[in-house]
Amino acid sequence: xxxxxxxxxxxxxxxxxxxxxxxxxxxxxxxLKTLPAHGDLxxxxxxxxxxxxxxxxxxxxxxxxxxxxxxxxxxxxERIGNALGNGLASCPHSVHxxxxxxxxxxxxxxxxREYAAIMTQQIDTLAIGWSDGQDFDxxxxxxxxxxxxxxxxxFTAESAGPxxxxxxxxLPDIFRGxxxxxxxxxxxxxxxxxxxxxxxxxxxxxxxxxxxTISMYRQDDESHGDVLSMLLKTQDDAGELLGDAxxxxxxxxxxxxxxxxxxxxxxxxxHLLCQNPDVQERLRTETVKVLGTRTATxxxxxxxxxxxxxxxxTLRLYPPGWILTRxxxxxxxxxxxxxxxxxxxxxxxxxxxxxxxxxPRPDCFDPDxxxxxxxxxxxxxxxxxxxxxxxxxxxxxxxxxxxxLSTIVAQWRFLSADHQLxxxxxxxxxxxxxxxxxxxCLQGIRTGxxxxx
Length: 453
Ligand code: HEM
Prior knowledge:
Elements: E1 9-10, H1 21-26, H2 28-34, E2 41-46, E3 49-54, H3 57-65, E4 70-72, H4 75-84, H5 93-103, H6 109-128, E5 135-137, H7 138-154, H8 161-183, H9 186-190, H10 194-220, H11 227-233, H12 244-275, H13 277-291, H14 305-317, E6 324-328, E7 332-334, E8 337-339, E9 344-347, H15 349-353, H16 394-411, E10 412-416, E11 423-426, E12 430-433, E13 436-441
Parallel strand pairs: 1-2, 3-9
Antiparallel strand pairs: 2-3, 4-6, 5-13, 6-9, 7-8, 10-13, 11-12
Helix pairs in contact: 4-8, 6-7, 6-16, 7-12, 8-10, 10-12, 12-14, 12-16, 13-16, 14-16
The chain binds protoporphyrin IX containing FE (HEM).
């Protein structure tokens, strides 16, 4: 915990014992946006603990690029470690390079191309499942779609079905629990109150099912050509096979880090297209020209330019990973302030993306700001973080979201089913609730991925 943060201004409104708990639970986005007015570095309080928020892109970059000095740590990372084991997203710098090397091959271009075939099949199932005039909860549909797709790439064997279903069911409680436990004062996170019990139960159920699946894969000795099979064959630097605990942590990490963030990004993108029918129409023109009536595939990606810009702009407006933490391992100097070892540092893609000094008209949805001739200041777009801890699934997520969005929009018109703004729930991701859409079928005969244009 930070001992002395002299010279770093404090955000107003902290209460004794609970600190900034109430604004962080009630309206964290509004709270974050107020911080840059108090300085480039601002202190906030998570219960009794102090934390420093970096409010300028170059300070965030400095933190991200010096991952030994600003190591993974702080309450959110501690909770992730507790929920998932010490996998790639939460492990300390000392083991990170080794872990990253063991997982990186699963995200190579060759593998992504193979995953894209699974994505296309899943998009087919999604887009065929609606009927003309149907209205539905977009977040729910995108969650099921993202979890089925990501789970299929991690483990393709039929025996993994129960684990996929259980993890899908448990993830929302795990996500909510990680954020709540991180902002609760420690005494509150230990009490047997319903939110804590729900979190523990969900974590234990998911944990047990993934363990069972690993044992089954080990027993049947057959390679399924998926990420779990690859991890079971991976040797570490000393030539040893990875142990069950590490494989378990990596699988849980990929499920948790991948599913919800991708589902949330697609939900926001569809919400924004409902709110901006002109952009939806332009996107439809592009995608129908490229795809006709078929489902998008890997080879279409270079021609789905506007779809990619819509996703990029969505990630700027609503970055799913909106608040992330680090801990200083030694005394550090940042923006002329001396920060003692053990201080929690916070960076927020949401805060940086919504600061008008770095992103003009920050609240306006404008995919054209990502046209190649537009200038962007370095470090002002960070939905996937940066430096050595940058998201390993960034290209996976962009591929999945671009293929899904372009296919959906070519075949269906999305209209808001109610005109309420979504309610944003502060959990580990920026999760929208109440995004209801009505769909109109645009193509009488749907033929799926095998059809020709
Ligand atoms: C739109 C979708 C996604 C977003 C916005 C996103 C965002 C992020 C961010 C911001 C980080 C850095 C966290 C930090 O600095 O502390 C991160 C790390 C990570 N992400 Fe993603 N992510 C997405 C999709 C995925 C997918 C699909 C996967 C895997 C299937 C994935 C796996 C990971 C992992 C394993 C890390 C830790 C990397 C490391 O520390 O080396 N993410 N992600």
